[in-house]
Amino acid sequence: MTFVVGLTGGIASGKTTVANLFHDQFGIEIVDADVAAREVVEPGSEGLQALESRYGNKVLLPDGRLNRSELREIIFSDEHEKQWVNQLLHPLIRRRMLEQLENINSAYALLVIPLMVENGLQSMADRVLVIDVNEKVQLERTMQRDHVSEQQARSILAAQANREQRLAIADDVVKNDAKNQKLLPQITELHQKYLALCRENL
Ligand code: ATP
To answer: Does residue 9 have its Cβ closer than 6 Å to ligand 1?
Structure first.
């Protein structure tokens, strides 16, 4: 079984930036929860069929793909439906990630799960790596990248786990407050550490 490093962090903390460095510098393969979440509702999937059975074809776009804004609308206005959708999709997403982890060819896998704390998914990883930024930097990067107001950025942050909750599940931490060039030394050191841990686990 592949050694799995779970990677998490809040919005705009730098998860993609860090995961790309592991991949581009060291060839580490990535399994991404957001990608898995899209795949389990692709046309023809069990997930999309179940959504269509419950909500009818209003949750489908004319080309047969999921109408995400319609589904968002349904779950936003009804907590019961939100739970139903989560109970349908979360096990499918988890199963999909496990399947993808079985097909990893690099020394270890990076499992990127943005909402790891919120969904209690840290048990899927052998080790948890948290990307940590201070709130000021996180707000600035969110506003700049997503073109949202400070108030909107603050409400997104408030809906997620906070910095302390994330750090509480961390085995390792990458600090990403500074500019990009500070990341590579941290990632190189972690990569060496993970290779050593993989050897121990053989
Ligand atoms: P999300 O989960 O919200 O998609 P993320 O955690 O994957 O975000 P990234 O997309 O990697 O975060 O980074 C968020 C933004 O911050 C991007 O615009 C990225 O270019 C920028 N950024 C990330 N790290 C740094 C850094 N060290 N210096 C400057 N900008 C950075």
So the answer is: yes
